[in-house]
Amino acid sequence: MLKEICHEGVYKNYINGEWKLSNTGNLIDIFSPIDGSKVGSIPAMSKEEVDEVILTAKAAQKEWADVPLIERAKILNKVAFLLLDYQKEIADIMVVEIAKDITSSLAEVKRTSDFILFTADAAKQMRGEMLSADAFPGYGKDRVSFVNRYPLGTVLAISPFNYPVNLSVSKIAPAIVAGNTVVLKPPTQGSISALYMAKIFEMAGLPKGVLNTITGRGSEIGDYAVTHDSIDFINFTGSTEIGRHISKVTVMKPLLMELGGKDAAIVLEDADLEEAAKDIVNGAFSYSGQRCTAVKRVIVKEEVADELVGYIKDRVRKLKVGDPRKKDTVIVPLISNEAADFVCELIEDALDKGATLLLGNKREKNIVYPTLIDNITEDMRLAWEEPFGPVLPIMRVESTEKAIEIANKSEYGLQSAVFTKNIDQAFHIANQLDVGTVQINNKTERGPDHFPFLGVKASGMGIQGIRYSIEAMTRVKAMVINFEKK
Ligand code: NAP
Ligand code: G3H
Question: pTM of the predicted model, to two decimals?
Answer without folding.
Answer: 0.98
